[in-house]
Design goal:
The protein is of the alpha/beta class. 38% of the residues lie in helices and 15% in strands. It has a single domain, classed as Rossmann fold (3-Layer(aba) Sandwich). The structure holds NADPH dihydro-nicotinamide-adenine-dinucleotide phosphate (NDP). Belongs to the NAD(P)-dependent epimerase/dehydratase family. Dihydroflavonol-4-reductase subfamily.
């Protein structure tokens, strides 16, 4: 069974690739450079070219970016589209964030419809960003909720809004495409909040850490020693659970036509600090000391039952996730 995976060098995608291979799929992945592609192949020395190969797609924002790769590939059964910019060091919100997210998504769907009639399902990495109403939170979030952001708001000067909007518009465009074009495939989206978890050593160095793990490294490095509130929280999930959800979304028939809010729940600054102190005590002196935390009240409720019931994914604990994250970073040279 053949899968086309975009952005295989990414933090989440590297774990998706791992699980696809474990589950016996044959994978062609896209990367932006030969160097990254070769690193991926080197990490799986026992796999033949039929089982794992890569193609270069330098910029997903470009018209027809995926055409060549899909035309010349085998008869894929599934496509998993993860590639999308996730960082805040941009100056042009349209060119650097919105266009690649939105055009990358519509572009790949058009190309599949035109050139790969064998594809049965497309799974897209969306985000909690496409659900949340932050900062004016609703009482409860589940898969029925959509971020109400407008394109005008997206292009103003709040970088978080721009990123969230890029995920919202890209996901909307995907559902609209399927609805209007009635293509050969159905769609499932994975909507994770903050993703923590181990980095895959062969791809990472300390100067290109993915955006979401930076919350953990900032604490470990003492950057958040003085100005954080212990009860402030984020919704989070472990990268291995998110990756498994992507693969289950192609394996489970009933996943078609559904969004999946893959969240493990809330993690407070205190949870994070306590876990770092317990699992990697050498960072203890960099951590804030929180006193008299009292009762924690969370800003909203969430429902992750669809992920557990339909995909059968269980969520890892904070301790396992944060502990493994730091351990993986120490392996690639992170110190304090
Ligand atoms: P990474 O930055 O590690 O991965 C992003 C991937 O997209 C990389 O492979 C990157 O290539 C590729 N990419 C970005 N822009 C382009 C472009 N213009 N053309 C071609 N490829 C591009 O981040 P994550 O793994 O965290 O993110 C993966 C997906 O998950 C994204 O869609 C993101 O929005 C989503 N997500 C992430 C969350 C998180 O907390 N991490 C939470 C919710 C959703 P390269 O490495 O060469 O730059």
């Amino acid at each position: 069974v053949k899968v086309f995976l975009t952005g295989g060098s990414g933090f989440i995608a590297a774990h998706v690739l791992n699980i696809l291979i474990e589950h016996g799929f044959e994978v062609v992945t896209t990367v932006r450079s030969k160097e990254k592609g070769d690193k991926i192949l080197e990490a799986y020395p026992n796999l033949s070219k039929d089982k794992l190969s890569y193609v270069i797609v330098e910029d997903i924002a470009k018209e027809g970016a995926f055409d060549e790769a899909l035309k010349s590939g085998p008869a894929f059964d599934y496509v998993i589209h993860t590639a999308s910019p996730f960082h805040y060091n941009f100056t042009d919100p349209v060119k650097e964030i919105l266009d690649p997210a939105i055009n990358g998504t519509t572009g790949i769907l058009k190309a599949i419809k035109s050139y790969v009639p064998s594809v049965k399902r497309v799974v897209i990495t969306s985000s909690f960003a496409a659900i949340t109403h932050a900062p004016n939170h609703l009482k409860l979030y589940d898969e029925s909720v959509w971020n109400p952001v407008t394109y005008e708001e997206a292009t103003k000067d709040n970088k978080f809004t721009t990123y969230r909007a890029s995920k919202t518009f890209a996901e909307r465009a995907a559902w609209e495409f399927v609805e209007k074009e009635k293509p050969n495939f159905d769609l499932a989206t994975i909507n994770p909040p903050f993703v923590f978890g181990p980095v895959i050593g062969y791809l990472n160095s300390l100067d290109n850490l993915n955006t979401s793990n930076q919350l953990i490294t900032d604490f470990a490095l003492g950057k958040k020693k003085d100005d954080t509130k212990p009860t402030e929280s984020v919704q989070w999930v472990d990268v291995r659970d998110v990756a498994l959800a992507h693969v289950k979304a192609i394996e489970v028939a009933e996943a078609g036509g559904k969004r999946f809010f893959t969240t493990a729940g809330f993690l407070t600054n205190k949870d994070l600090v306590d876990t770092i102190r317990e699992t990697q005590p050498k960072y203890a002196s960099n951590l804030p000391t929180y006193e008299n935390v009292g009762e924690v009240s969370y800003p909203f409720d969430y429902d992750n039952s669809r992920v557990r019931n339909v995909l059968g994914v269980q969520f890892k604990s904070i301790k396992e996730s944060v502990g493994d994250t730091l351990a993986s970073l120490v392996k690639v040279g992170f110190s304090h």
